[in-house]
Every structure is written in structure tokens, then in C-alpha cells.
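Reminder to self: C-alpha cells first, then the designed residues, so the page reads top to bottom the way the pipeline ran.
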């Protein structure tokens, strides 16, 4: 059995990667995070509590691995620090394990138009964007690292793009944004991201080592909100005027953010009916950036979950009471 260490296994994407690897006969996934041992995992899954900021502990946990999946979700500083340590530790091993490094659309920063993997990694949106771009530059220095850049990852248990958006759509606070919602929404279903990790681990020779992941070519944010609202039985979509959007992001967002911080206990946070609409969300919905995924389709053999199926599964989860602590 091939030991595959998943760093950040307790997170939204990490959990789905663990399930995908567990379904493969020749992989033995090892869940690693600060609280991995406290979570419930399928029978046979090894779990280890490791603080990735501890370089010695990180080296120890990947010592016998044939592969490492880096899907750590943390503050920007730790994202960059942990990525650098993973690459350094793997480079010192013999044989070196394959590392699958999960990046993000955010690494491209303010770029617009059709974006291929060779485009500049601007990383100029915020600290998270900068950390992802710099981590990707480090990854490109190592021939054993495969970088996956998902777009907007949605699906059951997605805290931002499925749970929060659903709460806002159902409440009528989010809807058709007009010109402000005509930006491209590069959706990718969470199980497709997990499937891409499996494909990247199985691939023998990859002439390219960075891959965009998105299943919704040309889909705008307005169209996403409309289709998701229909799946949630929250249609017709409400039109949100520029004035209303400004009020949400400039006037209501600060006090609602304070309320959200006050409800940080998971039992309360999961049922908070008043999530703020942060200014950055309005900016994202207006951005015209479309990921070219032809490389993932031709070299990895990616096949995408149909959008309507992904939305139906996500809406079913939410309607059944699924929530995340955000």
C-alpha cells in the first residue's frame, strides 16, 4: 500500500480528498492536521495531530510517504511557510515523494481574460492571493510537485460558496446584481478537485505540472446565483440594485461581521441567519477572468461533474439542514 499524507485533511477540501484516496485500492491515506485525531474517519484511516509550523514534526510525518497532498487552509503567512517546508522536506528525501500542491485561482490576482497556467501569477489581490502566488513559484522550482489551481470550489460543506451564498439567496439579500454580477464564476465541484488529486498522483509522466480546475466555462455570477436559487427553491431571483449592494457592503457588513465574530462558537455560527456580504465578494462578482482548463482535460483526463448535478447535490445538503461554522 502506498502511504499518502494529506496535510490539512480536516478542512473542507481535505476531507473530500481523504474519501477519494480511501476509495483507491493502492493508496493508504494518512490524515494530518492540528486536530485530525479528534475527527471521525473511515475504518483503517491513520490520523495524526501535527502542527505544520513545526518543521521537525512535518519531516517526521512525511518520512515514509510515497506522496504528499498539501491542502493546508490557514492564514497567508502559514500557507507560505508550510508550503516552503513541505517542498524542502520532500526534496531532501530519497526517493522524493510526489507532492500535489493545492493552490487557487487567487494566485493569478487581478489578471483578466482567458487565463492559462503559464500566465503571470500576480498575487496582488490581498495577503491570501500573494501567499498562493508565492507558494506556486516555490512549487515550480521542484519537478516532483504538481500544482492544482481550483477556481470557486462549491459543494456540500463548502463554507463560503455554498453555505453562505445559500443563506443570502434564501434571505433575498443576494440575487441578480446586474452589471456587477457579470463577472465569470469559475466553479468547480469539490469532488472534482479530489478526483484531480487522485489523477495527479496516478499520472506517470506529466510534461506540465500546473493545472487549472473549473467546470463552468463562461458562467457568470448572476447565472450561478439564478441556478443555485432554483435548486434551493428560492427562485425567482431578486434584483439587487447598486444602491442596495453598497448598503450591504458598506453599512450592514461591519456590524454583521461583529455579530459573526460574537457567534464564533460552532453551535451558534452554523445557524447565524445574518452573514455579512463582504466588499470583496462584490469585487469578485464583477471580475472578468476565465480559467482555461484544456490542459487538465487533455493531460490529467479530467471529467467534470455536470453543473446541474453539483448544484442539486449541494442544495439538497443545505435544505436538509447542512451548515458550516463560518
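Designed residues (326 positions):
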Amino acid at each position: 500500500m502506498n502511504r499518502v499524507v494529506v496535510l490539512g485533511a480536516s478542512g473542507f477540501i481535505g476531507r473530500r480528498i481523504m474519501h477519494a484516496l480511501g476509495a483507491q485500492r493502492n493508496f493508504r491515506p494518512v490524515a494530518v492536521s492540528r486536530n485530525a485525531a479528534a475527527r471521525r474517519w473511515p475504518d483503517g484511516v491513520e490520523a495524526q495531530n501535527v502542527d505544520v509550523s513545526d518543521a521537525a514534526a512535518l519531516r517526521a510525518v512525511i518520512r515514509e510517504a510515497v506522496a504528499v497532498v498539501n491542502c493546508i487552509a490557514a492564514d497567508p503567512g502559514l500557507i507560505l511557510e508550510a508550503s516552503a517546508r513541505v517542498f524542502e522536506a520532500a526534496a531532501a528525501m530519497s526517493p522524493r515523494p510526489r507532492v500535489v500542491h493545492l493552490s487557487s485561482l487567487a494566485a493569478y490576482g487581478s489578471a483578466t481574460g482567458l487565463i492559462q497556467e503559464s500566465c503571470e501569477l500576480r498575487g496582488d489581490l490581498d495577503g491570501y492571493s500573494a501567499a498562493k502566488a508565492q507558494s506556486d513559484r516555490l512549487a515550480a522550482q521542484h519537478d516532483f510537485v504538481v500544482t492544482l489551481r481550483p477556481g470557486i470550489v462549491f459543494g456540500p460543506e463548502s463554507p463560503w460558496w455554498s453555505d453562505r451564498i445559500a443563506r443570502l439567496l434564501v434571505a433575498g439579500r443576494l440575487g441578480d446584481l446586474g452589471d456587477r454580477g457579470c463577472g465569470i464564476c469559475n466553479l468547480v465541484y469539490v469532488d472534482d478537485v479530489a478526483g484531480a488529486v487522485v489523477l495527479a498522483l496516478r499520472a506517470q509522466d506529466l510534461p506540465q505540472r500546473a493545472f487549472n480546475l473549473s467546470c463552468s466555462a463562461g458562467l457568470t455570477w448572476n447565472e450561478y446565483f439564478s441556478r443555485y436559487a432554483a435548486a434551493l427553491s428560492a427562485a425567482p431571483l431578486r434584483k439587487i440594485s447598486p444602491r442596495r449592494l453598497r448598503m450591504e457592503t458598506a453599512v450592514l457588513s461591519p456590524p454583521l461581521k461583529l455579530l459573526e465574530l460574537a457567534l464564533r462558537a460552532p453551535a451558534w455560527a452554523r445557524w447565524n441567519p445574518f452573514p455579512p456580504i463582504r466588499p470583496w465578494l462584490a469585487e469578485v462578482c464583477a471580475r472578468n477572468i476565465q480559467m482555461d482548463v484544456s490542459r487538465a482535460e487533455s493531460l490529467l483526463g479530467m471529467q467534470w461533474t455536470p453543473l446541474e448535478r453539483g448544484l442539486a447535490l449541494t442544495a439538497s445538503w443545505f435544505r436538509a439542514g447542512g451548515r458550516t461554522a463560518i
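The first strand starts at residue 2 and ends at 7.
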